[in-house]
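Tutorial, part two.
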Amino acid sequence: MDEIAERAGLGVGTLYRHFADKQAPLAAITGQRIVQRAVDAGRLREDFHADDFVLITRGAMANMTGAGGRRRHVTLLLEGVRGPER
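Running the prediction step on this input gives:
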């Protein structure tokens, strides 16, 4: 967190006021990118925001273990659980 704060020109205390731990900034950036791509592709409604993504996935992501678990969870959320239409 010290390096992130330094590069951003912030104090560490300011960074911790916005992000609870070291994973939180990465989760915020990743969430914003995933949401924007899904909105651009027409997969999510235009008023959907990264904060909505974090709200929906925070609990599930925090408790997932195993390789690929988070990616699979996000894929299911964005693409849905239904199979291809026939």
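The chain has a mean pLDDT of 77. In part three we will examine how such features are distributed along the chain.
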